[in-house]
From TrEMBL:
This is Uncharacterized protein. It comes from Rotaria sordida.
Length: 42
């Protein structure tokens, strides 16, 4: 999916192997976790 806008979240992770940057997971409220994956081209 291109140009998706992420909702605010906490407890997320990210990884980068040169480029791009991958942002994944997150928690939007106590006990509710996301399985989203966003690819950021840098």
């Amino acid at each position: 999916m291109k140009r998706a806008v992420s909702t605010g979240c906490a407890v997320f992770g990210f990884a980068s192997d040169d480029t791009p940057i991958l942002v994944f997971g997150g928690m939007v409220e106590y006990g509710k976790y996301l399985s989203d994956l966003y690819k950021l081209n840098s």
